Amino acid sequence: MHVFDLEPISLPGLESPKLRAVGWIERGFDHPKGDVTPEFMKALVGLLVDPWQPVTYAGIHRCTLCRFSGGPGQLTFEEQRVTLGVANLYVPGEEGVVYVAPSSVVHYIDAHEYVPPDEFQRAVLSCPPMRSMAYLKRVMGLRTTA
Ligand SMILES: [Zn+2]
């Protein structure tokens, strides 16, 4: 599935006007490229170790930018390990917005020079700890249609 960064997005079983896409990139579409700081990468990987999921999906999302392999199944950075292609990451932003990124976003940054929008990077760096009460208060209320 391809969605441009910061566009509204709906996922199967999950619809909310608050959701904004980040990192839904695919072969055949240009994506923004650039550098990110190690601090941002560490924070993003940390949130993806055990991400809260309002809905769960069967199946694995493959990287279509990797030419043959579909991408790796895991990514490890600074001793934190993320499983790729299964979960999505929800990050609360300003004004009630919730960014949703596929877990593969860390692979896109690592291997395909993807750079996420500044406002998402700020939201990641100021995100409350995953599954903390402060986090859940800000991401709950996404309406599920399942
Ligand atoms: Zn790839």
From TrEMBL:
Stored InterPro entries: DUF7919
A Pfam family the protein falls into: DUF7919
Domain of life, per lineage: Bacteria
Domain DUF7919: residue ranges: 1-125
Protein name: DUF7919 domain-containing protein
Source organism: Myxococcus fulvus
